[in-house]
## 1
Amino acid sequence: MNLKITILILVLIIQGSLTYAQNNTSSPYSGFGIGELEMSSGGRNSAMGQTGIALRSNLFLNLGNPASLTAIERQSFLFDIGVNMEYTNLANSSKSVDVIDGNLSWVQMGFPISKKLFGGLSINPRSSVGYNVYTTNTIDGTLTPYSSLYEGTGGLSEASGLLALKVSPYISLGVKAGYLWGNVAQTINQSVTIFSTSYTLIQEDNISYSGGYVNLGTQISIPVTKKASFVLGGVAGLTSRLNSETSTTITKTYESSSEVMASDVKSNNSMKLPIDLGGGISFLYGPKWVASFDFKQSNWENASLNISSRKLSTNSSYRGGLEFAPKNDPSLFRNVARYRIGYRYDSGYLKLYNNEIHEQAATFGVGLPIKKGRSYANVSFEVGSRGTKQSGLVKENFVKLNCSFSLWENWFSKRQYD
């Protein structure tokens, strides 16, 4: 078996076990909606501000637009796996805490089916829930204090299949059909002490999600000169629904005795997710320069989730990126590496106390060739912030490291014998 594939399988096994053992977020904002949304478009995209709507490459997968699969060369196979680790400082007006999280980012592959038809498969986290919030209040009409501990873990995963059609040398169409599933455990622990006697009320909600979706994409290449060209891209995520089932258990504790007040009480709900619309443009100059810009909007105001609609807003995303590859001379290592920078801003889909929970980050990274071949090890960093300290909310400053392997194999050629 090819050495790269052997290493890849080992990484998959290791990361598969980590996926179940570690959350991918510690943000208190992940307790709203379906959690903190993940970005899983590819190793190259991560360093270029998470752009991808108009990016094309025969070496790097880009699942930000399914139409990009038509850039894969015939008789080739692309495989991409990524992992991440994030350091976050969470602070409000009075306290600060540091946390470290990490998980599998994505596993994806792309391949030609025929001369004009291309396919792909992907599995990755779609959202993450991981929070631990402690508050103290007083019982209405009294000075008696009580404490509340809110905890949540889990999230949604995504598996998808992609098809892309090369309508002409310059026009490509794509479709991505996916399935979402996952579990979220949420616990509210409230306790009060009255005349030296402790009372505790614990509510445990286990929510199971499942549902499908369909996304469409297109890319149009516009040659300008022999070396320069533009690519225009567009994506549309059709509205979809998530089915959810909640199982609730409520337990009351008085001194040393416990009483289950309600157990395994099930309720079903259907959650409408928003339509996503996005456009992008990229400029290519030979094999050296690639510049890209994306705009995307998701109208969460018209979505129906398990939180008040007053907390939802339209999420507008602006992203830009640049890749530079010096003169392609394989004899010099630095001349085959690819250097990347970018920036992204997301207004966020949450509005709490009239404050938008926006997010912004600067990105940079490098793609390093593996044994002077067509495979790359990609390393990227994100340095950014999320939220605000206003109105008693939490400001998050984070540094995120993403490592991925983009593996190219010639799997479809026939052996020739003399």
Note: Residues 3-409 form a domain with the Porin fold (CATH 2.40.160.60).
## 2
Amino acid sequence: MLNIIGHKNIFLGISAVLITVAVVAVVLFGFRQGIDFAGGTLWQFRIANNAPATDDVESFFTSNLNTNEAFVTYDPANNSFIARLPAVSEADHQKLLGALKGKYASFDEAGFQSIGPSVGNELRKKAVIAIILVIIGISLYVAFAFRKVFQPVSSWTYGFITLLTLFHDVAIPAGMLALLGHYAQIEIDGNFVVALLVVMGFSVHDTIVVFDRIRENLLLDRGKTAFAELVNLSVNQTMARSINTSLTLILVLLAIYFAGPPSLHYFVLTLLVGVTTGIYSSIFVASPLLVLWQGRKK
């Protein structure tokens, strides 16, 4: 049996370093926001014959729109260009469309999406509110579910520690995307919020499994065993289930990451990092924090 609680300072120290790096990255760099949040235009198109260089297409937009905020990338998997531009009205869209068709005979529009700054700002606010409400709601639910457990820690302690582990599992992938946004120009969009919500749901599932086993053992033991030993026993009893359940999801995500469309790469990467940190937190963070809280109270 692994002595996880006995080495809790090591595991908690690793988490503290990762969270510190993530928080510093978010504070220093922030997020490079996509058009979902910042507003703007996302235009996808194909040029089948004699496809030009991305710099040539980018210079076309900068000259016609009189802006330096035009970024064009090429997706070889779909043989298409993706242009990220400032907000473009429908009238300007039609003018640019005509000009592109005149310049490139094989031009074919695949998709056009334009969001105004006010809409993007509203979506950003709603995304932040959604994440906060989910975190609070899950914590309250855990506290209610463990309301009959009073010794040696109260039900609210389970809810509060669940809140800390959720922050742990959200902060690390968020910090990763802040670093990618700064160094690799990766933008976040609505998929980023969806990924974080999925990570929170999966993480709390694993944490509740461990906490539920602790509750069962507390009721069966009736105070005969030291709390730290009982928690360590509970974690070891549920570790195989947590790892096996999460490993199946990780294998699926890896398959999607390497074989799926490039547009989903960073969405899947966020899930991979979040699910992995969720496994770690449910085993090596949540239960040691419970023991530390009980020791402080004692």
Note: The chain has a mean pLDDT of 85.
## 3
Amino acid sequence: MKTKCDVDYENYAELLKAIGHPVRLQIVAGILCDECNVNGIVEKLNIPQSTVSQHLGVLRSRGIITAHKEGVSTCYKVSNDFVLHIIRLMKS
């Protein structure tokens, strides 16, 4: 039985490491403001598409973002409530 004091520190640490990189943090914050595709992120951050794709891969593998198809493009959205809460706290 879990109590209020039981926390999955390992999982939270992995999530924090994933968003701890400045580019990934910008990607997550940007996606929260305006769900977008790789090209939109490349334009906003002015970094190579391959770099954006690598960072998106890390975020997807940690369950922070999910992707869905819209026509021919893939759009991303933040799907992890813990990360959503952290980003909203940072912006407030």
Note: DSSP finds five helices and two strands in the chain.
## 4
Amino acid sequence: MKTGSPPVAAVDLGTNTVLMLVARLDENGRLQVVEDRCEGPRLGAGLAARGRLDSAAATRAIDVLGGFARRIAELGVPPGRVRVVGTAVLRRAADAQAFIAQARARTGLAIEVLSEEAEARLSYAAVVGDGGDASTLVIDVGGGSTELVGDAGKLRLSAPIGAVVLTETYLGDAGAPPLLPGGWAALEQCVENAVRAFPAVLAVPPERAPPETVCLGGSASNLACLDQQLVAYDEKKAEGHRFPAQAAAVQARRLRDTDRDARLRLPIEASRASILASGLWCIAATLARIGARTARVSGRGLRFGLARELLDQEE
């Protein structure tokens, strides 16, 4: 793609958040961000209990998509250069197609439901697309699933664990009781069982430097702020932060033992206060399973992989 061409837009519709990236290529062929936005309508609220989308959550998500569609047009992105994808929330919802039809009718955006493999592949491409090391391992924890990608993209695995679904299932959320008994202990066991699908890929001799591990997603960026003991959540200071693997478990249990009001005084996003402990435990268990000693936080998630793919198709 020529650098003078119009930008592309990539929208990631997840269980908890909707993210929009508008980008183009700079003169060096690297991804240049025009606008990057995040909203938290929590489309997957209540999905674990009903298997269907909550009508209020669907309305919130469509309202966000409508706002993004208008902004994409204002930024001069042609319709053929826009891609909108749904992840675990639409893979699980029995009424996903009805939601997709309603969203298109109201916003003009066509939503594609990504497979687990495609989601993992694009998350990996987001990290390595601008010259990253092909040996990098990528962990992407979302509201409804956790992906592990590595071995130059050949390893692509997904587990059905995420911050929203785990919180609703074992801890309860928004005043609703948990769906299953057992509380935090049961949540830990569920996550431990799920990550057994991941190989212990970093079981390397101490004298060998292991591949870099990169964590994507809101749970990871909030962990970075907690680990740095910031005064308030700051995504810019979260970007690139390297943390010891054990920090994820330490902070998960800290939040487990902290009520909501106290959590809101921590350097985290208020919209994640109720679900963050679950997301952090997904990070902790995955890092332990693969044998990582440290990890780096990156905000270059799925939407960056989508944008890069759109741009690469036009070269």
Note: The chain has a mean pLDDT of 93.
